[in-house]
């Protein structure tokens, strides 16, 4: 019988979540590390490191060791994992945990092994790798062990994973490196081009959360933002509207929608029929962008809904994965 998981980790580009058996989600922090170039030392990890972004002296760099959902900086990732594992194990930390950790679907074997190795190095006794869409589906409450098609669209910070799942496995999938962070970049570009204003990532994120939308809304929302005038270099304030942000996001949103559409086109007919009956489920923090459900429903003709607490479902699913699969294999 497979061992039950001690902890499940959603190792995301934007954030890392840890699920502990019997406790639920015990940790949620940004996947950022503050690193001192001069002394070659890690200064802070997680929330503390995030506070340093854009405010660090020259010798301290705030780095996101995971770009697009896979490991780009192996050594730092391992340090970050070790810190979070210890933090979430608390006083039980004297025993090495069994860990289920997820990777985006479609990662290469080399990338998969890098995640596995980093997790062992960070102090795991046993490591199970699970693909993100499977974890997302479990976390969203879908019974993945039935011979029935379910479509999950997991929109994270760096990647969007689209998958049709049946009988515990992925039947068709696609992973595109376009997700929530690209919405921020699109907002930064738009504001520079149309308002002559430089804004940072944190401002763009705040705009996206407050007035960002993918769908035309009956009521216009506005937000004042501060930035630096492109020409004079001086501080300047402008007012943005939700309609402007919708325009700014159109291209990025449509790349996600088209990817969903093309996965549907490749789905075997019986499973496609299941999906159209059961609907498409959105997960991941990026799914919180207002109006995404409407745009996807309109383009595919399939009812689309967002999971409850979409940013937490992958972590929840990794925690439950081992037991569900063990039950399934025993049947
Ligand atoms: N209310 C919100 N509205 C729109 N976007 C949001 C909201 N809250 C969070 N996000 C976005 O969700 C994204 C992060 O999602 P999530 O935490 O699921 O990603 P991740 O798992 O770290 O990334 P990945 O799966 O790509 O590795 C970020 O781009 C963030 O800006």
TrEMBL record:
<feature type="binding site">
    <location>
        <begin position="285"/>
        <end position="288"/>
    </location>
    <ligand>
        <name>ATP</name>
    </ligand>
</feature>
<feature type="binding site">
    <location>
        <begin position="205"/>
        <end position="208"/>
    </location>
    <ligand>
        <name>ATP</name>
    </ligand>
</feature>
<dbReference type="Pfam" id="PF06723">
    <property type="entry name" value="MreB_Mbl"/>
</dbReference>
<dbReference type="GO" id="GO:0005524">
    <property type="term" value="F:ATP binding"/>
</dbReference>
<keyword id="KW-0133">Cell shape</keyword>
<dbReference type="InterPro" id="IPR056546">
    <property type="entry name" value="MreB_MamK-like"/>
</dbReference>
<dbReference type="GO" id="GO:0000902">
    <property type="term" value="P:cell morphogenesis"/>
</dbReference>
<dbReference type="InterPro" id="IPR043129">
    <property type="entry name" value="ATPase_NBD"/>
</dbReference>
<comment type="similarity">
    <text>Belongs to the FtsA/MreB family.</text>
</comment>
<keyword id="KW-0067">ATP-binding</keyword>
<dbReference type="InterPro" id="IPR004753">
    <property type="entry name" value="MreB"/>
</dbReference>
<comment type="function">
    <text>Forms membrane-associated dynamic filaments that are essential for cell shape determination. Acts by regulating cell wall synthesis and cell elongation, and thus cell shape. A feedback loop between cell geometry and MreB localization may maintain elongated cell shape by targeting cell wall growth to regions of negative cell wall curvature.</text>
</comment>
<dbReference type="GO" id="GO:0008360">
    <property type="term" value="P:regulation of cell shape"/>
</dbReference>
<feature type="binding site">
    <location>
        <begin position="157"/>
        <end position="159"/>
    </location>
    <ligand>
        <name>ATP</name>
    </ligand>
</feature>
<comment type="subunit">
    <text>Forms polymers.</text>
</comment>
<protein>
    <recommendedName>
        <fullName>Cell shape-determining protein MreB</fullName>
    </recommendedName>
</protein>
<dbReference type="GO" id="GO:0005737">
    <property type="term" value="C:cytoplasm"/>
</dbReference>
<keyword id="KW-0963">Cytoplasm</keyword>
<keyword id="KW-0547">Nucleotide-binding</keyword>
């Amino acid at each position: 019988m497979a061992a039950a998981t001690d902890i499940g980790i959603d190792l995301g580009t934007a954030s890392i979540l840890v699920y502990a058996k019997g406790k639920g989600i015990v940790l949620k922090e940004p996947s950022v590390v503050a690193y001192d170039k001069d002394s070659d030392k890690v200064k802070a990890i997680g929330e503390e490191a995030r506070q340093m972004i854009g405010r660090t002296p020259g010798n301290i760099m705030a780095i996101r060791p995971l770009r697009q959902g896979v490991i780009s900086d192996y050594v730092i990732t391992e340090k970050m994992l070790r810190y979070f594992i210890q933090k979430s194990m608390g006083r039980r930390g004297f025993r090495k945990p069994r860990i289920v950790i997820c990777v985006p679907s479609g990662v290469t074997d080399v990338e998969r092994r890098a995640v596995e190795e980093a997790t062992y190095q960070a102090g795991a006794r046993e490591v199970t790798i699970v693909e993100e869409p499977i974890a997302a589906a479990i976390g969203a409450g879908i019974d993945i062990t039935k011979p029935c098609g379910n479509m999950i669209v997991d929109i994270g910070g760096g990647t969007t994973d689209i998958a049709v799942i049946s009988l515990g496995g992925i039947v068709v999938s696609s992973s595109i490196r376009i997700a929530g962070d690209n919405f921020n970049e699109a907002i930064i570009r738009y504001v520079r081009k149309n308002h002559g204003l430089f804004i940072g990532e944190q401002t763009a994120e705040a705009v996206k959360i407050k007035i960002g939308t993918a769908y035309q809304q009956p009521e216009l929302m506005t937000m004042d933002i501060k930035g630096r005038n492109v020409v004079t270099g001086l501080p300047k304030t402008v007012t943005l509207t939700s309609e402007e942000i919708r325009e700014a996001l159109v291209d990025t949103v449509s790349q996600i929608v088209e990817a969903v559409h093309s996965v549907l086109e490749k789905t075997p007919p019986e499973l496609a029929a299941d999906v159209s009956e059961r609907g498409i489920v959105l997960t991941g923090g990026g799914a919180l962008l207002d109006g995404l459900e409407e745009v996807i429903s309109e383009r595919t003709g399939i009812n689309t809904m967002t999971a409850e607490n979409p940013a937490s479902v992958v972590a929840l699913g990794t925690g439950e994965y081992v037991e569900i699969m063990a039950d399934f294999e025993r049947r």
